[in-house]
């Protein structure tokens, strides 16, 4: 493992059983939720994981958290293989890898005060050694999450806060354990547009002040243009293109990435370009198409695409097409 990498994912797969296709059939159908993902995350790096709903982004985050067991592959954290851990080992791991969920309205216990919510992770992990230490850590986490001064919010309940403030409480509850990786699963999709930039700016600030690596999961490529160091584009359980933010936004290679970028709103009418609207629905993850799994919707697909399945290419190293069969 590279000394710069805090997390390495190799050939990670997660298949879910989907029953049998016929009454007396012995074969079992499987949902290919994550299908061979490899990824490196460096210390204090931000990776934006982008793709349509159902492409496997959230399942990948659950695998990294240890909330799902992978079917195949390896997850290496700080040089240690964490793919298959027991409950006690995973409890210790979760102090270092924390998650921010999509819906701040469902993530918080409505009967608890904000102080109790943020302090609870310390109690679960046995870190609430004294009242004074707990109070100091809770207040610091809240203020680092933008809830200043912390005393104003400590005795409030979630229903007394706005959506943006609730999401800050969720972030504070993750920060109180001083994690090294933050998995942010669509953390702004449930918020007003005016609040989204504040939460993204907060995460950008935390990666500097707390040296936290962030995997930012989103379906909106435009929302992370100034925030992420690298972008990984997922389609049907696989990463089809990965590179620096500048590479992906200005020199996209995969036709799926080009389609995603083409629909990003552009404020200046003179800079607007033709949109690429993909035809048809995303293929069934139970019955994947042969060859390149994007070819049924690809605007430049040719006959060989139905037979050959190309792998992705890291753009920051080669700047060549991720889709090896793409005709320029």
What does this structure look like?
This protein is α/β, with parallel strands linked by helices and 328 residues long. The protein has a domain at 5-96 and 179-253: P-loop containing nucleotide triphosphate hydrolases (Rossmann fold). 28% of the residues lie in helices and 20% in strands. It is built from ten helices and ten strands. It has helices at 57-65, 87-93, 104-107, 114-124, 131-144, 163-175, 193-209, 245-250, 255-262, 315-318; strands at residues 5-17, 30-42, 46-50, 72-77, 80-81, 97-100, 181-185, 213-218, 230-235, 238-244. The strands form two sheets. A six-stranded mixed beta sheet has the order 6-7-8-3-9-10, sandwiched between helices. It has a four-stranded antiparallel beta sheet with strand order 2-1-4-5, covered by helices on one side. Helix 4 packs across helix 5 (131-144). The two termini are 36 Å apart. 37% of the residues are buried.
In summary, what is this structure?
This protein has a domain of 167 residues: P-loop containing nucleotide triphosphate hydrolases (Rossmann fold). It contains ten helices and ten strands.
Topology, pairings included?
Elements: E1 5-17, E2 30-42, E3 46-50, H1 57-65, E4 72-77, E5 80-81, H2 87-93, E6 97-100, H3 104-107, H4 114-124, H5 131-144, H6 163-175, E7 181-185, H7 193-209, E8 213-218, E9 230-235, E10 238-244, H8 245-250, H9 255-262, H10 315-318
Parallel strand pairs: 3-8, 3-9, 6-7, 7-8
Antiparallel strand pairs: 1-2, 1-4, 4-5, 9-10
Helix pairs in contact: 4-5, 4-6, 5-6
């Amino acid at each position: 493992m590279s000394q710069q990498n805090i997390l390495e994912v190799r050939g990670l797969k997660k298949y879910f059983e989907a029953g049998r296709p016929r009454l007396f059939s012995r074969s079992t159908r499987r949902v290919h939720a994550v299908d061979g993902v490899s990824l490196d995350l460096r210390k204090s790096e931000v990776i934006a994981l982008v793709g349509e709903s159902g492409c496997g982004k959230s399942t990948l985050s659950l695998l990294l958290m240890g909330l799902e067991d992978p079917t195949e592959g390896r997850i290496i954290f700080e040089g240690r293989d964490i793919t298959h851990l027991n409950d006690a080992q995973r409890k210790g791991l979760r102090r270092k890898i924390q998650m921010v969920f999509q819906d701040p309205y469902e993530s918080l216990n409505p009967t608890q005060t904000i102080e109790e919510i943020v302090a609870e992770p310390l109690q679960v992990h046995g870190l609430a050694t004294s009242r004074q230490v707990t109070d100091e850590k809770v207040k610091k986490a809240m203020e680092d999450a933008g809830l200043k001064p912390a005393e104003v919010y400590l005795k409030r309940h979630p229903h007394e806060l706005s959506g943006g403030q609730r999401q800050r409480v969720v972030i504070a509850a993750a920060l109180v354990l001083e994690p090294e990786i933050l998995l942010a699963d669509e953390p702004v999709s449930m918020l007003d547009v005016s609040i989204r930039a504040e939460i993204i700016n907060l995460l950008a600030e935390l990666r500097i002040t707390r040296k936290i690596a962030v995997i930012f999961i989103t379906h909106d490529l435009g929302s992370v243009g100034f925030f992420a160091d690298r972008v990984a584009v997922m389609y049907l359980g696989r990463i089809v293109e990965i590179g620096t933010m500048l590479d992906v936004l200005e020199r996209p290679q995969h036709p799926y990435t080009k389609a995603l970028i083409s629909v990003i709103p552009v404020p200046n009418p003179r800079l607007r370009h033709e949109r690429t609207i993909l035809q048809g629905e995303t293929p069934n993850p139970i019955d994947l198409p042969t060859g390149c799994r994007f070819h049924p919707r690809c605007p430049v697909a040719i006959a060989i695409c139905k037979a050959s399945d190309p792998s992705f290419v890291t753009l920051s190293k080669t700047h060549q097409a991720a889709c090896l069969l793409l005709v320029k």
